[in-house]
Structure formats: structure tokens, C-alpha cells
């Protein structure tokens, strides 16, 4: 018995049909980021304030000795439980670290928690990296309405993948109805000025698009910016413009005392490397807030939950000013 080969055109036609079927299956099966998300309400919290924290927890790396993740993670949980923030913008959290934190932060939901729709091959391949910025929020206070995440400039990656700007964005509804909805944008900004400025401008384009979708929502941009207020071009780009989404830095720099170090990167040394913070929280001007403050660690000598100090601000009730 001899096998008969299909004609060339028939073979091409079958391949074409298979490709069409694959595309249709991808479109049908991919997740819809804009489907409303419902989560059960546990109870109404009594405190009217909203505590917002930015925390770079540092990547899980091998062979770091006393600074390895297995040593730091219990200290991190103790710090987070002590701060008791309502919203946490967390950076440099690998999927393995996030999986561990899920079991030890039961009061919180987190985002991203699934697959994303990517607009380019580069951003699709970078998907596992782009989940390294996690937004955590208290289940008893917030319900997530929508969200997205990915690379800010997917066609302009830098050589070191940790220096590419990844972002996570979640729209949160305050179930106590004391505050408007929040558009929370968590980011680990690029190093190097040129790309950092362009990335900051692109972040505001993303924020503007979501502001148009949720016009009554107030914005929170937070994360490890890798740059302080002394980097004027980057700092101004992070503040936005009246035509995008203008923001306010929650730090009150007038409170800085001469010679006082406000740096937030200490690299496990208990010595900050800059007089100004590089982990920042920006909010919409209508949101009244207490001045941001740097959270000091009280740990045994030479042991730290992260190489970054965390930054906390508190939003006060009735804070949408006329």
C-alpha cells in the first residue's frame, strides 16, 4: 500500500484553516481584563483612614547568605503586619515570592493574579517578569473592579531585564464608600535618565486612559522610582501635567532637617545612599493625606527584610477636596 501525498494547494489550505482556528481559539479563550470582578465582603473596617505603602521587597536570589529570601521572609511578614497597610504597592516580587506571601497574607487579595493580554511578542515573552510588581489590598476594605499589567515600553527593552519598567494597575472600590474609587499604578521605574523620562511619560499616558474610563476615580502612583526629586526631568514627568493626570508627591520636603538622610535604599547596610527618597508615593491633588514617612526596621543586627526602606502615607476621610 502506498501513501498518497495531498496536493500542494490542499496542504496549504489545511495549514491556513488550522492557523485561523488557532487565532479564533486564542481570542475566545484569552482572559477579559475588563469584566467586572466580584469578591465577597467580609466585614466593614472601623478605621476611616487608608494606609498606603510602597515596598520593594527585593528579588529572590540564590547564595545571599543572611540576606537570602528564606531568612528575610519572616521578618518581612512581621513588618507588614506591624504597618497594617490597606494598599501595598510591592516591587521585585518574583512569582515564587508572591506564592509564599499569599499563604501568609490571608487578609489581602493581590493583583496581578492571572494572565494578561499582551500587545506584542516582546511583552508576551516578558509576561512572567511583568508580574513582579504586585498590588495588595485588604479584602475587607476593597473590591477590585478592573486591572491590567505589562511593560511600559515593550518595544524598548533594556539589556538588564530588572531595569525595564513593568507596571501593575488596579481599580479599587472602597466598600465603605468613604472614598472614591482608586486607580492604583504600581511601578519599578527604569534606571538611566533618558529611558526613565520616557517611561514616566508613558506611565501618565496609561494613567490618563484609565482616568477617562473611570473619571470620578482618584489616582495613586507608587513604587521604586530609582530617582529622587533631584532628577528634575524624571521627577517632573512623574508629577504629570494638567493635560494628563497631575499628581502630588506625598513627601513634605519642608520637614527635612539639615543633614538628615531621607534615602530609602540602604542595600542591607543600615546606611542610606541618598539624602532624598527614591521610593515614592504620588496621589491626585484632591486627596488629602498625611506626609509620607519612611518606616525604619527594628531587626537584629545585620538582618533586614529588604534592601529598601518602605514608605507609608495615610489618606484621610472626606479627602476629595472641592
What helical percentage do the residues reach?
25-40%
Global geometry: globular
Strand content: 25-35%
Structural class: alpha+beta
Sheet with the most strands, sense and barrel status: 6 strands, mixed
Unreliable segments of 5+ consecutive residues: 23-44
Q: List how many beta strands DSSP finds.
A: 12
CATH topology: Deoxyribonuclease I, Chain A
> Helix and strand string, N-terminal first?
HEHEHEHHEEEEHEHEEEE
* Total tally of structural domains: 1
Distance between the termini: 86 Å
User: Mean pLDDT, as a whole number?
Assistant: 83
Largest sheet strand order: 3-4-2-1-12-11
User: What Rg, in angstroms, do the CA atoms define?
Assistant: 22 Å
- Would you identify the CATH architecture? 4-Layer Sandwich
* CATH class type: Alpha Beta
Please report the number of helical segments: 7
CATH superfamily: Endonuclease/exonuclease/phosphatase
Task: Offer a concise description of the structure.
With 322 residues, the protein is of the alpha+beta class.
What's the arrangement of secondary structure elements?
Blueprint: H1 8-29, E1 50-56, H2 69-83, E2 87-91, H3 95-104, E3 108-111, H4 121-125, H5 127-130, E4 134-138, E5 142-151, E6 166-174, E7 182-188, H6 193-213, E8 218-224, H7 232-239, E9 248-249, E10 279-283, E11 287-295, E12 310-320
Parallel strand pairs: 1-2, 7-8
Antiparallel strand pairs: 1-12, 2-4, 3-4, 5-6, 6-7, 8-10, 9-10, 11-12
List its traits:
single chain, 322 residues, alpha+beta, Deoxyribonuclease I, Chain A, six-stranded mixed β-sheet, 7 helices
